[in-house]
C-alpha cells in the first residue's frame, strides 16, 4: 500500500521542489531532488506573464457551478424516481447504477460513434441559415460533397431539408 502511495506522490513532490529551484539549478546534471537555494521567482513570473489568477478563478467557477447543477438535477431525479414508481423507474435506476460501475474509458467509443454523425452533419451544412449562392456555408457544402464521392445529391437534399427558413 505504501509503495503505491510513494509511486503516486514522488512525481508530485519532485515537481513542487523543482518549481522552487532557480533556472540554473533546474538545468543542472545530475538533477538534485532538494534545491540548494529556494526561490519563488518561477511563481512571480507565472503571474506576471500569464493571467494565471484569472485562469484559476475560471476553473473554480466552472467546477462550482457544474457541481451545484449536478447535485440539484440528481436530487430532483432521485426524488422523482423514489416518489413516483412507474415501470421505467426500476429500469432507469438499474441503467444508472450500471453506468456508474463501468469505467469511463469504455464509453469513449460509443460516445464517439453517437457523435460522429452530428459532427459530420455540422461540417457538411455549417449553420442552418438561408444562404446565398456565394456564401461560405454553401461553398463548405460543395467542398463536403467533393470529399464524399457520390454524395453531392444527398448533400444538396439534406441542406434543403435542414436549412429551410
**Would you tell me the overall average pLDDT?**
77
Helical content (DSSP H or I, runs of 4+): over 70%
Strand count, sense and barrel status of the largest sheet are: none
Broad shape: elongated
Can you tell me the residue ranges where pLDDT is under 50 for at least 5 consecutive residues? 127-132
Given helix and strand content, the structural type is mainly alpha
Number of strands: 0
Quick summary of this structure?
The chain is mostly helical.
Can you tell me about this structure?
This protein has 165 residues and is mostly helical. It has 3 domains: 1-49, no CATH class; 51-84; 113-162, no CATH class. Helices cover 72% and strands 0% of the residues. It contains 8 helices and no strands. Helix 7 packs antiparallel against helix 8 (152-162). Residues 127-132 have low confidence and may be disordered.
Helix/strand layout:
Elements: H1 2-19, H2 23-26, H3 41-49, H4 52-83, H5 87-101, H6 108-125, H7 136-147, H8 152-162
Helix pairs in contact: 7-8
